[in-house]
Write a structure and sequence with these properties.
Blueprint lengths: L1 E2 L11 H8 L12 E6 L5 E6 L23 E5 L8 E6 L6 E6 L8 E5 L18 E4 L34 H15 L11 H26 L8 H9 L12 E8 L17 E4 L18 H6 L4 E4 L24 E2 L5 E5 L17 E6 L16 E10 L17 E6 L9 E2 L2 E3 L2 E3 L3 E4 L2 E6 L1 E2 L4 E5 L7 E4 L16 H6 L10 E4 L30 H4 L13 E5 L5 E7 L11 E6 L3 E5 L13 E5 L1 E2 L12 E4 L6 E5 L13 H11 L9 H9 L4 E10 L4 E9 L7 H12 L6 E6 L2 E13 L5 H11 L24 E2 H9 L4 E11 L12 E2 L5 E4 L11 E8 L2
Parallel strand pairs: 27-28, 35-36, 37-41, 37-42
Antiparallel strand pairs: 1-2, 2-3, 3-6, 4-7, 5-6, 7-8, 9-21, 9-33, 10-11, 10-32, 11-21, 12-17, 13-16, 14-15, 14-20, 15-16, 18-19, 22-31, 23-30, 24-25, 26-27, 26-30, 28-29, 34-35, 37-39, 38-40
Length: 881
């Protein structure tokens, strides 16, 4: 359809046609007529020409508009590129519409634009009388369709003027290049201006614009850089990118160590006070300083002295109720025996003397005292300088017995020597043999190893004195507005809609303000000092359930680290206060949750909620913070590094850490996150198939491998997970409850879980060994028995049949037994005569050289005469001397 427009102008309205349509005389008869639009039929030879009013000679309306009847002589078609001179053949009024003239032509035109004009005659090109000259022509095309890739509507023939643009140097990215670019431009636009004096107004404006361009260019580059994980340089950006794929970027972890106090007299405070309260400051060695550092800042060492000594600060995590002289050194009692030792795996000992002030875990987990079993003398020389510092083991006492069954002091019944029986948790069992007394040059050396008391746990970091003022939340008078329905974060609101209420108020009273919500400015204070201490749950911290062992107190969990020593308090305008706690993120925080996120990027900023994810701080509130600084590898100090305590009590004559501080981890680097985060989602966090359950069980500490089987137990399907623990340990009720809680987060709904011991298969193996004639048969046999057992050898090597050498479905290849035997010095030949499952002759594997196991089975050969059902190994040795 083509619309008539006879003017030389291109207008965006149809006012002329509306005016002609409405123009009538006093009798209501139209004054002028004109073309309204044109339509080409499918045969492209018939044109329906529609007018604004009825035509003269119409068969429908006997009272047409003014003007003579129209015929072929009154219609002229101009234009065409390939097909020209298209002639009108007929022009007759439409029988059904009084304002439509049906025109036929001698043939269709091409794709170009034609113009149909109304003329008076072949000799007079003016429009007929009664027709508006502006609506006496119309442009059209004979082709009905248009190219599908383009809009069929008319293009704008009046585009805006294209202004000449200056040549832009896109390599200009800094202040100097922008300044030179502006000066070069001014030399073209103002050739006569050549001022270079910095005080000139023109130079000042150029430099101001160059500065602003430099700042804007940096922001554009920064936004583009921080938009992608691979290019981001800020920890905040990397952390948020990684969070999108459920990868938690950690900020490190502080170190922990056990600290020992040595006193010259009992320190037993009266009342609720304690000898060493929690958060007592400990410092690494300062030259020329006594063990006691005054707590008074005016008398304590200066910051310069700390800095000069590269001092590291630790603080006690729990209260040490009292320091006792008798606990400095607790000797062992050997019941009159000599050359004694506590073997590997020991969990009990006897102390010489009555130590009724020692406490065990009888009352509550973690209430027992911690002792450090330490080697003080070299067992070979008796010299203190040769004592092995690695032979030190912290143990938490489970029980302390100082009275016999009659209520009297416990003594050796043979000689009446007072003694104390102590036991400690199996997790604190000795990992090495500890020598108690030794024979050095035919002389008895006693007290080679003793127990040290007055021990407390400490961790890296220094609490800042007082509370740091974080400022006031912006005043309510600075409230901005945003339309309802937009995000609550004002940083996402376009500038055009900010302060909409204020803008609307300045308009006419009839203009209503948009529906808006007040949004206070974002409050984002920062901490003045770094690095912020990151700690996982432990003694003195929220979420610590209590540990029954010293090992449990020092077991670290990097994934659970957070700024737990950071305390933020909101002081409301009404005088009340409320605490806020740190969180990893606020994605799952409800609007009333008083939590915040610490974002460390060279400065530790606190990001509070926006009223939708986490609570928004009240305007006018003042915030204060107390926190600790010190984190990462800097806290992993060596044994004996701590030498001072901030307690002004000279009864304390020594402070040290007998063991090195461990567990300190630096914050995760951006490079590590960039490499790890894109692949973190590949780690399955759910268990659906049996293989999933087996793989997830293997992630639990202390499990070397798992196997799973599903069985219908009556009303539902139960997945039985068999776990092969390290060292072949049994699945105890406590361990079963622990691993069930671990697997619960992965369990698929509708499946029940149970944890069982593996199905162990006892073996029976008989080996015949011929000894070289130059070796003693007994020596070789003894060496073979040390190799072919299920124990850990004194040198730390595991026996061939050690449980850790077997797991689910793992076969036993007899070639490994041959190789182990041939490695023993003095063995000439080896022959395995029997290799089968215990009491199952049909499973003999000598011929095949292999003993197989099903996927749910674990091979076992303990060769324990007390438990012959756990496997039998028979060794026949011939030859030798």
């Amino acid at each position: 359809m083509a619309v008539a427009t006879g003017s030389a102008y291109h207008c965006g309205s149809s006012d002329r046609r509306d005016a002609v349509r409405a123009a009538v005389d006093g009798a209501g008869k139209p004054l002028l007529n004109g073309i309204d639009f044109l339509e080409v039929s499918a045969d492209e030879k018939t044109i329906a020409l529609t007018f604004l009013h009825n035509l003269p000679g119409s068969l429908v309306d006997p009272t047409p508009a003014a003007g003579p009847p129209l015929g072929p002589v009154n219609l002229v078609i101009d234009g065409g590129v390939r097909i020209r001179n298209v002639q009108v053949v007929t022009a007759v009024p439409d029988a059904s519409a009084a304002n439509v003239l049906v025109v036929t032509v001698d043939g269709p035109g091409d794709f170009s634009t034609y113009t149909l004009r109304l003329v008076t005659s072949a000799d007079d090109s003016e429009p007929p009388r009664g027709f508006d000259p502006q609506l006496a022509s119309v442009g059209f095309s004979f082709r009905l369709g248009c190219l599908k890739d383009f809009d069929c509507g008319p293009t704008d023939p009046c585009p805006p003027e294209v202004l000449a643009e200056p040549e832009i140097n896109y390599l200009a990215k800094d202040y100097a290049s922008f300044r030179q670019l502006l000066l070069d431009r001014m030399s073209l636009t103002i050739p006569g201006w050549q001022e270079t004096n910095p005080a000139d107004l023109g130079i000042t404006l150029v430099e101001m614009l160059a500065y602003e361009a430099d700042r804007l260019s940096y922001r554009q580059d920064a936004v583009a850089t921080e938009a992608y994980l691979a290019t981001a340089r800020k920890r905040v950006s990397v952390r948020r990118h990684a969070r999108l794929v459920d990868y938690a970027m950690h900020d490190g972890l502080n170190a922990r160590t056990w600290v020992r106090f040595v006193v010259q007299a009992d320190v037993i405070p009266a009342g609720p006070a304690v000898a060493v309260p929690a958060k007592t400051r400990l410092v690494t060695r300062l030259p020329g300083r006594a063990p006691n550092l005054p707590a008074d800042p005016s008398q304590a060492p200066t910051e310069d002295e700390f800095a000069a000594a590269s001092a590291a600060f630790f603080e006690t995590m729990v209260d040490l109720k009292a320091l006792r002289l008798s606990h400095n050194r607790l000797p062992f009692y050997t019941w009159g025996e000599t050359e004694c030792c506590l073997p590997t795996g020991t969990t009990r000992a006897t102390l010489l003397g009555t130590f009724d002030t020692l406490k065990g875990n009888d009352t509550a987990p973690g209430a027992g005292d911690v002792l450090i079993l330490a080697e003080e003398l070299d067992p070979a020389t008796g010299d203190s300088a040769g004592a092995d510092p690695a032979h030190r083991r912290p143990v938490r006492l489970q029980s302390v017995v100082t009275l016999d069954r009659d209520g009297k002091t416990l003594t050796d019944p043979l000689n009446g020597t007072p003694i104390t029986e102590i036991t400690w948790h199996p997790d604190d069992a000795l990992p090495f043999p500890l020598c108690i007394s030794a024979n050095v040059n035919d002389a008895l050396v006693s007290d080679v190893s003793v127990a040290w008391g007055n021990v407390v746990l400490a961790d890296h970091g220094r609490s800042l004195d007082g509370e740091e003022d974080l400022g006031v939340v912006p005043d309510p008078s600075l409230v901005r507005s945003q339309p309802r329905g937009l995000a609550a974060d004002p940083t996402t609101v376009p500038a055009s809609v900010l302060n909409a209420e204020a803008a609307a108020a300045s308009l006419d009273a009839t203009v209503e303000a948009p529906d808006t919500l007040p949004v206070p400015p974002r409050y984002r204070p920062s901490l003045s000092q770094l690095p912020l201490t990151q700690s996982d749950p432990g003694p003195g911290l929220d979420g610590w359930p209590g540990s029954t062992s010293a090992a449990g107190d020092t077991t670290r969990k990097l994934a659970a680290a957070s700024p737990r020593w950071l305390s933020v308090t909101e002081h409301l305008p009404d005088g009340s206060t409320q605490p806020w706690s740190p969180a990893r993120d606020l994605l799952e925080s409800p609007p009333e949750d008083l939590r915040f996120v610490v974002e460390d990027d060279g400065t530790a900023f606190l990001r509070f909620g926006n009223g939708r994810n986490g609570s928004r701080p009240a305007s006018g509130s003042r915030f204060t913070a107390s926190y600790r600084v010190g984190n990462g590898l800097a806290g992993n100090v060596a044994a004996g590094a701590l030498a001072h305590v901030a307690i002004d009590d000279h009864r304390i004559v020594g402070v040290s850490n007998p063991l090195p501080a461990l567990g300190g981890v630096d914050p995760e680097s951006i490079e590590h996150v960039t490499r790890s985060a894109p692949f973190a989602f590949l780690t399955e966090q759910r268990a659906v198939t049996l293989a999933d359950y087996a793989e997830v069980a293997r992630r639990h500490p202390g499990v070397q491998r798992g196997a799973a089987a599903a069985r219908w137990t009556g009303s539902w399907s139960t997945v039985f997970v068999s776990v092969d623990r390290d060292c072949g340990c049994e699945v105890t009720p406590a361990f079963r409850a622990d691993i069930l809680a671990f697997l619960e987060t992965f369990r698929m709904a509708g499946q029940d879980l149970d944890v069982t011991n593996p199905q162990r298969v006892a073996l029976e193996i008989e080996m015949h060994v011929c000894v070289d004639p130059s070796y003693f048969r007994s020596h070789v046999e003894s060496a073979l028995k040390r190799v072919f057992n299920s124990q850990v050898q004194p040198d730390g090597r595991k026996g061939v049949f050690h449980p850790d050498n077997f797991t689910f479905g793992q076969p036993l290849e007899l070639s490994t037994l041959y190789a182990a035997a041939q490695n023993v010095e003095g063995v000439s030949t080896v022959r395995i005569t029997v290799a089968r499952r215990l009491d199952q002759p049909a499973t003999d594997g000598v011929a095949a050289g292999l003993l197989t196991a099903a996927p749910s089975e674990v091979l076992q050969l303990d060769n324990d005469p007390n438990f012959p059902d756990r496997g039998v190994f028979r060794l026949n040795v011939d030859g030798g001397r």
